[in-house]
Amino acid sequence: MSRNPQIESVCQRLRRDFFESIKHIYNPSILEQGYHLGKNRKGKEQKMPLASISIGVVWLKGMSRITEDELAEMAAMAKSESKKALNGYFQLTAE
């Protein structure tokens, strides 16, 4: 499966910009500890993760002939895989 380096670069920049922008939301001690305290749906206080971003991309390489359903399935898969990826983004290629 081929990868588009321009897409990778854009994803890296988007994530970097996102994480830079959320620094203004949290106070420094919360950023340092990596979580904040909040109440879950049952009203119990627990550690909550900080805001994050995951990016799933489907690259339609060349004259890809895929249906809308196939594209939607690929987009859902890319998004799901991006949440598992250490770098926070995942790229699928439709050739």
UniProtKB/TrEMBL annotation:
It comes from the Bacteria. This is Uncharacterized protein.
